[in-house]
Amino acid sequence: MSSQKSFAKGSTAPGPVAQGSVRLYSMRFCPFAQRTRLVLTAKGIKHDIVNINLKDKPDWFLEKNPLGLVPTLETPSGQVIYESLITCEYLDEVYANNKLLPADPYEKAQQKMMLEHFSKVTPYFYKIPMGRRNGDDVSALEGELKEKLSKSNQHLEKTKSNFFAGNSITMIDYMMWPWFERLELLELKHCMDGSPALQKWTECMLEDPTVKDTKHSLDTYKAFYKTYMEGKPNYDYGL
C-alpha cells in the first residue's frame, strides 16, 4: 500500500511510468480503488501508486481522466484505463500469471452476473449511514440489505465452497470484498446475522495475504470516515 501523500490542485505531476511497471492513481480509503490494489497485489504486478486528493483534484490528473475518478491506470506508453471493473479485467488479461477470471466463457459470465447483482447491494453502504446521520429510521433499509446479503449466503451454501466461485479466491471475491471490510466501520455487521456461510467467507478472506496487505485497521478507517462525514476528508490520515 502506498504511503505517499495525496496530490492536490497545483501539485507537480509525477514523472513518467517506469518501464515494466504500471501506475495506479488511487485514494487510500476508496473501496473502488481498493479493488484494483487487490488485483495488482494478488497478481504480483510491479506498480507504483499515486494518491489523489479527490476534493481538490490536480489539473494534470483531470487531463488523464476527465471524470476525475479513481482507480485510474496508466502504462509506460501513456495508455490510460479507468473504472474499477475495467481496470481489474484489463490487468487480468494483460498479465497472464495468477489468473483471477476463469477462462471458460460461461464461468466468466457467471462472475459478471454476480457482480451485477452485487452492484445493487453497494448503495446500501452509503444510504444507511447517511440516513442515520440525518436522523432517519433506517430499519427498513437495513432489512433490505440483510435480505440481499442472505442471497449471497444462499449461493455459498448451495455451492458448499468457501469462496464465490469455488474453494480458491477469484476475481468475484476481490470485487466484493472492500464493502465487507467496511461492515464494522459502518455498523452494518448485524446485517449478516443469519448468514453463516457469508460470515465464514469473510473470515476466509481476512486470512488472505492480499487482503491483509491492502486493508486498514478499524481505528484508521473510523478516523478517516469521521473527517469524511464532516466534509473535510483527510486523505493523508495516518501518514
TrEMBL record:
Xref: Pfam families: GST_C_3, GST_N_2
GO molecular function: glutathione dehydrogenase (ascorbate) activity; glutathione transferase activity; methylarsonate reductase activity
Gene Ontology annotations for the cellular component aspect, listed alphabetically: cytoplasm
Record key words, sorted: Oxidoreductase, Transferase
Annotated ranges, domain GST N-terminal: 20-99
Domain annotation GST C-terminal: ranges: 104-229
Catalytic activity: RX + glutathione = an S-substituted glutathione + a halide anion + H(+); methylarsonate + 2 glutathione + H(+) = methylarsonous acid + glutathione disulfide + H2O; L-dehydroascorbate + 2 glutathione = glutathione disulfide + L-ascorbate
GO biological process, one term: glutathione metabolic process
SUPFAM superfamilies associated with the record: GST C-terminal domain-like, Thioredoxin-like
Assigned EC number: 1.20.4.2, 1.8.5.1, 2.5.1.18
Keyword Transferase: yes
Family, similarity comment: Belongs to the GST superfamily. Omega family.
PANTHER family recorded: GLUTATHIONE S-TRANSFERASE OMEGA, PTHR43968
Protein's job: Exhibits glutathione-dependent thiol transferase activity. Has high dehydroascorbate reductase activity and may contribute to the recycling of ascorbic acid. Participates in the biotransformation of inorganic arsenic and reduces monomethylarsonic acid (MMA).
Name listed for the protein in its UniProt record: Glutathione S-transferase omega
